[in-house]
Amino acid sequence: MAKTVFITGATGLLGRVVFDSFVNAGWTTVGAGFSRAKPPSILKVDLEDQAAIETTLDDIKPSIIIHCAANRFPDQCEADPDSTRALNIASSRRIALAASSRSIFLIYLSTDYVFSGRPGEAPYKATSTPNPPNLYGQTKLAGEKAVLEVCENTGLAVVLRVPVLYGHAESNAESAVNVLIDAVWKAAQDKDAQGPMEMDDYSLRYPTNTEDVARVIMDIANRYLNADEARVAMPKILQFSGLPLDGMVGKGEDKDAKVARPYDTHLSTKVLKDLGVDVRTMDFTDWWKMEMKAYRR
Question: What is the pTM of this model?
Answer without folding.
Answer: 0.90
